[in-house]
# Entry
Amino acid sequence: MSNNKIKIAIAGIGTVGKGLLDLLLKYKNNETNLEISAIASRRKFKVESRKFKNTLIFADAKELIDFDDYDILVELIGGDEGVSKNIVFDALKKKKNVVTANKALVSKYWRELHSLMKKNESILKYEAAVAGGIPIIKVIDEFLVSNRIKKIYGILNGTSNFILSNMLAYDKNFKKILNDAQKLGYAESDPSFDVDGTDTAHKLSILSSLAFNYNNKTENIKNEGIQNVELQDLKIADSLGYKVKLLGLTEIEKKKVKNFVYPCLLSKDSFIAKVDGVYNAIVVESDFCKKSCFIGEGAGAHPTATSVLSDIIRLSDKRINQKKSSVFVKHKEISLESRFGSYYLRFTTDDRSGVISGIANQFKKYNISMKSMLQKESRTKSDRYATIVITTHSCFEKNMMQALDKINRLNFIRNKTVYLRIEDFK
Ligand code: HSE
# Structure
């Protein structure tokens, strides 16, 4: 490292910001050449250390626009518009380097940020934006630079994984476990992005853009969340040898890409099905390394701050800075309708003759073949009905959706049929 001080301006002292201050104070390498020239935070915070004695404190991050005394801006405010966007764009235009944990901003302005980097010869790093404590950006950007990546999939949202794992482990419904996740500080203050798949889609868009060198917008990703996953389906899937996980998947084949986010059944033997709780797991398939799996804490102050600090340290070593190209390739999107795979279906029906043949008729019409079937007699106080669970062999999603649409209108169907996709990962 050079002897010159590298000046850092930090914007946002929330969970990750506090984690970063902690790490800066306890950073194992005391010889660091980092100096914190400014901290902008709306909230009051305390740092009692000589390290911060020359630090200017701003109550509003927008004051950083008129501030110039830094080499690296560390943006930890979040949000894809407003002050976080303004200070990041401003810093890159001032030819400063930027480190951010802001997945919404990086995924939304991928193209613009790369153009700014190229034009101003500045660098933006965003390791903390995807899977907090897993260095997946460095894996794709640096380690696998000699490999052709074919597919990336995994569990990218710790909150959803915590909820799905604990619903089953503690026999509680979605709402109760979401409450626990919020109390433990795993879920975002507005947990809707965690549970509706948006957070996973933001992260997937970044991984996909980076791995396949294009501009994959989050809005192109069809995402389904876990908010409608029921405890009984987790239990039935468990008894059939599967775990239910919120999956993010991006894959390229002959310049066509798939980007899907949905809860699905995974065989308990697969790498990522074993990963429970707030942990994230990411599998990267590439031509020479074959299959590489990375597991770690996907959220939380210290794992995420570790990613932030690693980017800062990397940028502060001038020898290893590298410039990214902003020439993107165009790939065609493969729609979810053309997904070819198997399904888990749970029908709630009258318990009478003709039900199975009614379902089977539609399956025949849409070329869907059953793999397994189980029927459970179910009762309310006054009534008897049937719960029928069917898993299928692979078929096209379009056919499955059409068949389910027809089946749901049959007179013996009591509730809208529950479906989950099954992914055949080993
Ligand atoms: N809220 C995210 C999660 C962590 O639960 O994984 C920050 O990306």
Q: What stands out?
A: The longest strand covers residues 242-253. The radius of gyration is 24 Å. The mean pLDDT is 92.
